[in-house]
Write a structure and sequence with these properties.
Layout: E1 5-13, H1 18-31, E2 35-42, E3 50-58, E4 72-77, H2 80-86, E5 90-99, H3 106-109, H4 120-125, E6 130-134, H5 150-162, H6 166-176, H7 182-201
Parallel strand pairs: 1-4, 4-5, 5-6
Antiparallel strand pairs: 1-3, 2-3
Helix pairs in contact: 1-6, 5-7
């Protein structure tokens, strides 16, 4: 079936590279000839503030930059609280990609409010949507902790899930990441594809 377009929400907190992820993905879809509308919402505009990107691509003109609740095909999130915040936006057949990373809010740290009484991972897994969760601690190594580059790890995971050309995506990474960070980002991308291959083969 031909892909005529999808609605994607990319979410996380400041400092996780949401805008870089969105930029790399936009270059890829433009290369495929799609039309795009992207709207970034930056909460507080600082590290720790919520960041979301409404990302729409289509083979027809895209009129609205924002995605209505219930119209999201893919939720790609790098932080669990942000994953929970957007679950209601998914279509019935929408797909969740989430990291287990969790940034405890300042209000919880200051004991002004209570945190959820159970694991956010378990809440996410109970969603009726198809769900894929990456735990950075399961894939860390002494010289490379993937949580620092979860955005590009997730890009590799998403590309493998969608069956996209890794050569094309890696070339886009090379062309759009500062030179001194290129090799690290390519390694992160390849780790993401490897994780996805293992998990998708087990389904």
């Amino acid at each position: 079936m031909q892909d005529t377009g999808k609605n994607i929400i990319i979410a996380g907190v400041g400092g996780q590279g949401i805008l870089l992820f969105s930029n790399l993905l936009s270059k890829f879809y433009l290369k495929l000839g799609y039309q795009l509308k992207i709207s970034d919402v930056i909460g507080l505009g600082q590290r720790g503030g919520g960041v979301e990107s409404h990302f729409r691509y289509s083979d027809k003109p895209v009129l609205s930059p924002f995605i209505k609740a219930g119209d999201v095909d893919y939720l790609i999130s790098f932080e669990q609280t942000e994953t929970l915040r957007f679950l209601h936006c998914l279509k019935d057949d929408g797909v969740i990609f989430s990291s287990t990373y969790e940034l405890t809010s300042t209000s919880v740290n200051a004991r002004l409010q209570k945190d959820l009484p159970e694991s956010k991972t378990e809440i996410i897994k109970r969603s009726e949507n198809k769900t894929f969760i990456i735990d950075p601690d399961e894939h860390k190594s002494p010289d490379f902790y993937i949580n620092k580059m979860m955005n590009v790890v997730m890009l590799g995971y998403y590309a493998e899930f969608r069956g996209y050309s890794h050569d094309d995506m890696i070339q886009i990474v090379r062309e759009n990441v500062p030179e001194k960070f290129v090799e690290g980002n390519i390694k992160a991308y390849e780790i993401g594809t490897t994780i996805a291959q293992g998990e998708l083969a087990a389904i």
